[in-house]
Fold this sequence. Notes:
Blueprint: H1 2-8, H2 17-21, E1 27-30, H3 32-40, E2 51-54, H4 56-63, H5 86-98
Antiparallel strand pairs: 1-2
Amino acid sequence: MGAKANKALGLGATRGRLYYKHPELFKYCGDQEDKQWLYENGLMPATGGKAFILIVEDILDLAETDEYKNNPDICLNEVRPFKVNAKIQEKMKAYIRANRTDGPGDS
């Protein structure tokens, strides 16, 4: 989740800062159905706003870079890995296909 990744890397509660600093990160913005699933699985409050799902390995890799590794505000226990259900996984795959930058038909 984006907000937790922001906190984990010591960026505080400033929304979107992580995405601005690292536009190369994969982020999937869940729809209402996805947010409901995240809420039901204890991953998001009922009143939550946008639900950005990120790849946990990307956040952990960032934490090891020179930019973050000596940051006293880093708090990796904020990052809770989880697996999405098959329906969300399919939506994420469709998002990836629709936003490819390596050209049509390339694998």
